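FAQ: What does a multi-protein file look like?

Like this. Sequence, then tokens, then the next protein.
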Amino acid sequence: MRLFDSLEIAGSSLTAHRLWMDLISQNLANVNTTRTPEGGPYKRRVPVFAERLQSMNNDFKGVGVERIEADDLPPRMVYQPEHPDADAQGYVAYPNVNVVREMTDMMVATRAYEANLMVVESAKEIWGSAIDVLRS
């Protein structure tokens, strides 16, 4: 393992989890968006994580977001015949965003982000101690 591998791995995870938190905030911001440019209600977006490997010998080099997918769950149907987006039966298709799930995902992403920050801080302390030993 090279000297800065721990920072590279933690940094890749920090980036991936920050993107996940960005997606969660987009999902929460669009919880009531019934009309999008693509047509229909907003669809929940989720990241697909994948490990990053060093190409020559398949050493683990961190995590990354392979792609962002729209959640395939059906929209929530709410009876609101007065709503401008209501169908012929009076139902409005709302996004498939569950606020409780998004908040739970946000807690998971935040904790993972914090854990990787602790890895970075630990690496800094170790290197600082090593430098102090070398100086003496």
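And here is the next protein:
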Amino acid sequence: MTSELWADVTALSGDHLAAALAHVRTAAVDAVLVRPEQLDGWKPIERLAVAVLVGPASSGADLADVPVDVVVADGVRSLTAARSLAEGRRLGVRCLIDDGASMDEAADQCGVVDVLLSVFTDETNIPLELLLARAQGTRTAVFKALASGSETSTVAGVLESGPAGVLVDATSLVDLDVAAQVVARQAEQTAPLVPLTVTGSRPIGMGYRGCIDTTTLFDDDEGMIIGSTSSGGILVCAEVHYLPYMDLRPFRVNAGAVHSYVFSPTTTSYITDLRAGAPVSGVNAAGRFRDTSVGRVKIELRPLRLLEARDEASGSLVNVILQDDWHVRVMGDGGEVRNLTQVKPGEKLLGGIWEPGRHVGIKVSEKILEN
């Protein structure tokens, strides 16, 4: 599950509030928590949810003409007012937890509300783990509020405990951005890559290949796992390495023939199925996958080369068909970049082995033979 980051601006006013609201509109934040009066003049932005914190005396007039996704009670005593204001929106509650009684009161809201913003006075994560245990199997998403800016460095540890996300005080925009970076890293997945022994490399004539242009900039050791069968594929490098006759395209992977699979840790996509905005995974030589989006897929007729390889440990055979050109690179098993046309049988490349059998890109439990 991808963790969410919420920015809390409820303590801000004046220029500080204006600066924070402007910042969250462009930051890697999923939602902003505000008081009703702070949304005066707010213009909705599709990707950013708005949660409004209300008290026991709040009325419908407080939320008139305000684009609100979540109504959050500022405590259990305010839930009645928040529920009456929700009217089809998600319902939440913010709970201050400083002893056993307040812990039990918060836990009792699991299954009652959609969002539980837990504010702990103690640094330990044990109360958080107890809340998560109570929320398991219910509709309630538990968030942890970071106690201070200094706690930003512990975001990763908090997220490993399993909350739906964190609530960060937007008093410090630097802390907000640091938390966003940590949340983004937590969304990355890893899958073991393996050395594959090349068994064949030969031209096969003309065919259509697709370049996958993404909305990210790849690092020197990154690319995509591309293969002809669901058994796996080879790490094809992004266009971030020296090209003598053209500029680099650091957003691009020259990904191979149009029939090819593009692998993520749990799913695959045909190159021809990819469209602008579709999710796709980049991977580095250490097997760290990160999500990005397709900007476009550029399909053109080019000479093609078949590259075949074997995983000696499992005996699995994989192949990839790529544009037959020196400037297309694949990754050696030691993390070195190899020019496609210079790869010879017996050499080792880096790739991924998956359990075969896919239906619309998802693993299925049936026998499927691919050659």
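Q: Is there any per-entry metadata?
A: Some entries carry free-text notes. For the entry above: The domain at 4-187 is CATH 3.20.20.70 (TIM Barrel).
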